[in-house]
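Collaborator request, handled under Task 6.
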Amino acid sequence: MASRADNIASNLSLANFSKATELKNRIWFTIGALIVFRFLSFVPLPGVNPLILETLYSKTQGGILDLFNTFSGGGLQRMSLIALGVMPYITASIVVQLAASLHPALASLKKEGESGRKKLNQYTRYGAVLLTAIQGWFVASGLEAYGASSGLQAVVMPGLVFRISAVISLIGGTMFLLWLGEQITSRGIGNGTSLIIMAGIVAQMPTFIANLFEGGRSGSISGFTIAGLVALLVALILGICFFERATRRLLIQYPKRATQKGMMQADRSHLPLKLNTAGVIPPIFASSLLLLPLTITQFAGNSVSADTKLGSFVIALNQYLAHGKPVYMVLYALGIIFFSFFYTAVVFNPEETAENLKKNGGFIPGIRPGKNTATYLDHVLTRITVIGAAYITIVCVVPEWVIAQTGVHLFFAGGTSLLIVVNVTVDTITQIQSHLLAHQYGDLIKKAKLKGRMR
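Structure tokens returned to the collaborator:
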């Protein structure tokens, strides 16, 4: 059943869009900022040969670098200034959220409201700088070592100077993206950081479509396979849209109070619990943990001998943890399920929610306030998380199985990428509807002449 907000949004007139000057300015600002982001992805690091780098990157596909490269819009493949994208900030944000749920001092900051939120955001930025510096140093060092072992030197002048300059450049690029994301959030439309990630993923779409139809033209991919892939993408997108908007609404009853007419009236509201409370964090964590050993072994593969125990172990690990392999898909599914429950427990605290309801005089009909309410909320959340974890697992594992069966590279259309694109798109459209709704109400107020007169 559609809510009242959905009914109002469905009756919005897009004819008012041309009159909403502020909304148009916000949209144009967002588009301009995303264009700047795309230009930066083509600016290489100082001291790097892009042509040789392309050859080296093609030898390490399938690892965690593919995940970072997709989120940065191909910036890692070209080793641009924004090669790491906003992934260090996302990782630092997750770590700070986990620490705020476990550490008493950070938990008290979380309860301080706006001031505490600003401090936690500042800690997140510091963590992002630290992670960018560490990742940048390892990327620069690995690029030098791997290039030398392969006989292809992508770094013009290897050494300490290159590593330091690469780290400084990567930190500057990542911090600029964070600033750009904050500007989009405040002066544009939608969440800036999420839009930057989505823009990086969508930027890979033309290449994916071109390769798909080129394979159909050359005969390497059959027309039936192409039609099946398109149908699969449509089905996955529709399924994500349905499940991401699905909520379990719990009825909240408040005590009766006197109205202006002297009548006693009881207030009712609903506590919405999302089916997928953890969002896109479970597949990102699971894929990162699985692909990290694969990336390390790929970089170390040329420096070990296949006749040794270490060499045979590296080769076996690369074979079992490759995309589409049964062991990889099973571990991937188990990782998604584990992180779905783990992160849901981090972001939603039933005891805190029950305590807030009790302070405000609210209660769930048939459930006593306090501990019983917390137990009931935990029970309901666990049941819907089972469905949410199963949904994320299917969305993420099915593309992996398709890759194994067809041999078509679907990293752009992977489960994690589709989840991010659909979620960000729905959130942005919702904000646009909110601006149109506010503009429509403003017009109604002007027509009704409800504005106070200047005296």
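The cover message to the collaborator said: "The longest helix spans residues 114-150. The radius of gyration is 25 Å. Please let us know whether this matches your experimental observations."
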